[in-house]
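Q: What changes when flavin-adenine dinucleotide is included in the input?
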Amino acid sequence: MVKVIREADFGQAEECALAVLDFSATWCGPCKMLAPVLEKLSEEMKGKAEFFKVDVDENPNLAVRFAIQSIPALIFLKNGKEVGREIGFKPEAALRSTLESFLG
Amino acid sequence: MTRYDVAIIGTGPAGLEAALTVKARNKSVLLIGPADLSAKVRKAHTIQNYLGLPNVSGREMQEAFLKHLESSEIKITDEQAKNIYAMGDYFAIQTGGADAMYEAETLILATGLPQTKGLPGEDLFLGKGVSYCATCDAALYRGKKAAVVGYAPKEEDEANFLAELAGEVLYFPQYAGEVRTVPAVKVIREKPVEILGDRSVRALKTDGGEYEADGIFILRETIAPDKLVPGLEIEADRVKVTPQTETNIPGCFAAGDIAGPPYQYIKAAGQGNAAALAAVRYLAAKRKQ
Ligand SMILES: Cc1cc2nc3c(=O)[nH]c(=O)nc-3n(C[C@H](O)[C@H](O)[C@H](O)COP(=O)(O)OP(=O)(O)OC[C@H]3O[C@@H](n4cnc5c(N)ncnc54)[C@H](O)[C@@H]3O)c2cc1C
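A: The predicted holo structure follows.
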């Protein structure tokens, strides 16, 4: 499951061993296409990685904090520390191998 | 929504031969591209070395190809693929607005050689104000200022469509001849040279001046393959394929000029055939699982 997260409860994501933040917006076409891919990966990686959706319009401070300039943007956090990011739509297979590299 | 077995993008020899082969293998096929076929077929002077068609003109080749499609009952979807998403189990192909979507389990790219190099700044601002599809992204520019660079008269429709939503639309035709746009569209006959901005697009620079814009739509006949299909691996400006025409994305194949030299009609057709068979094999293996 991909959880919707806001600034107020962002601590949740920072506590995860591996968190995937999906910075997106309702008006963004590629974000809409990426959502089901992330949903599927989140089921596959249950217990290994937590997935969060961050709406950039509703959470401008998070967007600024992570210097988001283009969406969709995926940010990978290990115990709250950024370990990687992917900008733009990415195919499922590519995302899976990126995620696996972080689980290593 | 129908999910096709194979979607083929491009109506040159590579795409057409792929479509014939997929159809002959009894798989459903979606063929997207100009219904009057590739300009490289249509406009060729004479072709000496295509098997079975000695000394043909492009027109004659076009006619022969169309006849062959008709006899196999293959229809062409006369649209341009704007964005293609590798969803994992299938591909989503967008040709216009949010509802102009097609789905297919496998994808064959046969879009030929990209004709033009991008403008300076185009890559940098793609998705940050630069777009290749007015109908897809028009909603973002409600009340704002948009510049449209059109490389063919058919793009005038996109400019007209944008004018219904955007506050102001500037149209830069990159072809000779009359322009038929609605009065709300301002036509400027200048050549774009650069896209300017910092975090996002700010202006279009031309050989005649600088035009402020929130969004810049660049509408060409071809879109760079890695822009068309995000995540696609490119090598020396061509899509990287194995001898079996596989790309780095599972279920996505490429054939013809897009997959590298030699650039020849018969090679394109042959590779289209190989791609079709590879796609059919892929489907069979996937369904066995
Ligand atoms: C001047 C000239 C002379 C040539 N002479 C010869 C010759 O004598 N013999 C020979 O063998 N070869 C010749 N060639 C090469 C030949 O034209 C190409 O190798 C051949 O056309 C490649 O076929 P293709 O199917 O890969 O691509 P193309 O023929 O380029 O077809 C690509 C198709 O994809 C479509 N398309 C592109 N993007 C999209 C999109 N996003 N959505 C939908 N459709 C899209 C295009 O509109 C087009 O229909 C010549 C080429 C040139 C330029």
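Observations recorded in class: The first strand of chain B starts at residue 3 and ends at 9.
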